[in-house]
Amino acid sequence: MSATFASPDDDTIPLHIIAADDMDAWRAEQSEDTLAWIDANGFVGRIGQTLLIPGPGGRPVMAIAGFGTGEKRARGRFHLAAAAARLPKATYRIVSGLPDDRAEREALGWLLSAYKFDHYIQAGEEGAGLVTPEGIDANRITAIAAGEALTRGLINTPSCDMGPAELEDAARDLAARHGATVSVVHGDDLLSENFPLIHTVGRASDRAPRLIDMRWGDAGPAITLVGKGVCFDTGGLNLKPGASMGLMKKDMGGAANVLGLAHMIMATALNVRLRVLIPAVENAVSGNAFRPGDILPSRKGLSVEINNTDAEGRLVLADALTFAQEEDPDLIISMATLTGAARVAVGPDLAPFFCDDEGFARALETAAVQTDDPVWRMPFHTPYESMIEPGIADLDNAPKGGFAGSITAALFLRRFVSTSTYAHFDVYGWNPADAPARPKGGTGQATRALLDLIRDKSSA
């Protein structure tokens, strides 16, 4: 579920946002009764603190929410969301204290904090509602929140209900909502249509593999988003241990991210020619599963030696990236829950990305700061190319030695893009613990930053 801004009514409660640094100045303007109530409840303006101020009849006449100190704000994001989660159910209207330069981000955080994955349980009570703050683009913020909710919902859905067919349904539903078109290559047709790696990875499952191709827009820069759609990853014959398999419903997080980003792009009507490609498979175990030591053909004609069947994401992406490059778009972006090495390098909160285009990288890093959507640039370190060249095939899908796993995976993918500007995101797609506006579970990463960057490209 996603949230929208509330409509004001007679019961709307004025909300004052108070930074701890500004507490004395705000207190100087309040009545003795209000100050006594604040002191009795220990409100000092910490991030996440909230308090309703009662009037003579006991009904609240205002609410206050802490905004912390500058030092504390610098260590986190979505500070108003921390208060939104604690305010009683009501409709609130911000009347003071929201910095102009943070208004859109904090309003978005409020909407993001309303997300709950309640598909399998009795839905709980809705939380606090917010009247659209002055000076923000409500339609844009709502579209971003809805895109993030789409991403979260897809990742959070267990694989029993989110296989390749259901992922296709999600893409078709999104396309129908925005007037986009979808074509899909299914099952053994992948072989006749020359997608051998996608077919090989998905053939062991009784849930047919497929390549989903969505298109929208007929003017502006051509932008192709490619998302890894491994709906469950057992590891194949290189079977994962049980502890590592527990979160593998999120291995289609790249696909969920690009679908969420696609919604944001279409809902805000950016002037782009958008294409979304999702190789959707389940990496299962059966008698016809691909094996360690196999040498497989790819759509591009490069041969790939399989040294680990658990490095399957880069295989399905390779065919999809080749297909994307055949139209020579202005920009190709791949997003994938690809390597544990990326998570070890930067943790779950940062989205590592690889790109050779300095202008793109700088613009993305700027957008990431402006949108509270952190990214970290990683190197396409060309000297490591030899690590993905096994000698008996063109490429190795899983170099031995354990060094630079995220980099070698990115270098592998780069072999399938030749002329377009290319950026690869090795996302984690999961919040391991609750945080303001980011509940534990599936999450979008780098999509808001990419939306800002694409918006700028579309209007240039």
TrEMBL record:
<keyword id="KW-0031">Aminopeptidase</keyword>
<dbReference type="GO" id="GO:0030145">
    <property type="term" value="F:manganese ion binding"/>
</dbReference>
<protein>
    <submittedName>
        <fullName>Leucyl aminopeptidase family protein</fullName>
    </submittedName>
</protein>
<dbReference type="GO" id="GO:0005737">
    <property type="term" value="C:cytoplasm"/>
</dbReference>
<keyword id="KW-0378">Hydrolase</keyword>
<dbReference type="InterPro" id="IPR000819">
    <property type="entry name" value="Peptidase_M17_C"/>
</dbReference>
<dbReference type="InterPro" id="IPR011356">
    <property type="entry name" value="Leucine_aapep/pepB"/>
</dbReference>
<dbReference type="InterPro" id="IPR048816">
    <property type="entry name" value="Peptidase_M17_N_1"/>
</dbReference>
<feature type="domain" description="Cytosol aminopeptidase">
    <location>
        <begin position="308"/>
        <end position="315"/>
    </location>
</feature>
<keyword id="KW-0464">Manganese</keyword>
<dbReference type="GO" id="GO:0006508">
    <property type="term" value="P:proteolysis"/>
</dbReference>
<dbReference type="Pfam" id="PF21337">
    <property type="entry name" value="Peptidase_M17_N_1"/>
</dbReference>
<dbReference type="Pfam" id="PF00883">
    <property type="entry name" value="Peptidase_M17"/>
</dbReference>
<keyword id="KW-0645">Protease</keyword>
<comment type="similarity">
    <text>Belongs to the peptidase M17 family.</text>
</comment>
<dbReference type="GO" id="GO:0070006">
    <property type="term" value="F:metalloaminopeptidase activity"/>
</dbReference>
<dbReference type="InterPro" id="IPR043472">
    <property type="entry name" value="Macro_dom-like"/>
</dbReference>
